[in-house]
Amino acid sequence: MAIPRIGIIGVGNMGQIHARILGNMRALAALADTDLEKAQRIAATYGVKAYSDFESMIDETPLDGVVISTPTSTHAAIAEKIAKSYDRIKGILIEKPLASTLEDANRVAGILRTKKVVTIVSHSEIYNPVVERAIALIKTGAIGTPRTIIHDRRGFVQPSRIASLGDVFEDIGVHDFDIMARISSGHAKLYAQCDSEGGVINSATVLVKLEMGTLHVFHLSRQYAGRRREMDISGTKGTLVLDLFGQIIKVQDLDQEPSADSRTIKLTERGATIKVYGEPVQEVINDFLKCIETGGAPKVGLDDGVGALRIVEAARASAKTGKIIDVTVQGRN
Fold this sequence. Notes:
Structural class: alpha/beta
CATH topology of the largest domain: Dihydrodipicolinate Reductase, domain 2
Strand order of the largest sheet: 14-15-13-12-11-7-10-9-8-16
Oligomer: single chain
CATH class of the largest domain: Alpha Beta
Order of helices and strands: EHEHEHEHEHEHEHHEEEEEEEEHHE
CATH superfamily of the largest domain: Dihydrodipicolinate Reductase, domain 2
Largest sheet: 10 strands, mixed
Strand content: 25-35%
Number of domains: 2
Distance between the termini: 29 Å
Shape: globular
């Protein structure tokens, strides 16, 4: 089967990453952006045509799928219009989040399901091999029952970009809220505190305590000097410490000396440092193209996108009111 032909809508930071990867895979067919001059510059690099609107791109270019990498507030409306107006589009990859609100997410998800459009929501950390390996270790009982899981996702975003990205919960929190749902599930209590910039929540701490006993702690910030993408998972038998950038997992048994050296060894040995490699966005696109070709289910689909936004809205409500919010974490595979 021929490589699917993909068009990109929006060539900002993430759109350009998708263009690079799809271009290298010979799957990029066209680009669209309201800034036509910018789109033309990027399109020239890959020998494809640029458009100022996605409708013209789809009308004039034979496409199997599209990537939506526009400002967050436009995701749902664009996906809805494509699903309703262009039956020949087999697949849509939506940059995270699925939508800005749970209401919009539920509406567009219903339309996409009805139209049977293959849809991936780019919670790219789920495709990070270090996250995949850690979830597998947890499920096989390597550290016993998880008790406390700290998600640390902090960095800096230029204030000029914040309006297009939305608040910190929908922008970066969705990654960790989805990871949580692949580790824990059930009824929970959520409490959030935040700091705002220009009226937009830009950093926050969120606590989610599951009835089953597991506690998830989220440190989220876009006003941090440096970049941190880490997880610390404490279980009844041991711990996992993840460096999501360096793609390293440190494994330690609970009865092991804290000062014990770690080294690169097999998983069956004690005190392990496991290093894995991969580019998560590349894996997102691999999954996208495969699903278009086969009609299979993606690793991160509509239910995952909606589930993450359910936690986003609960965090917003808690941060606004100062109250503890009842939530249900719907487990994912």
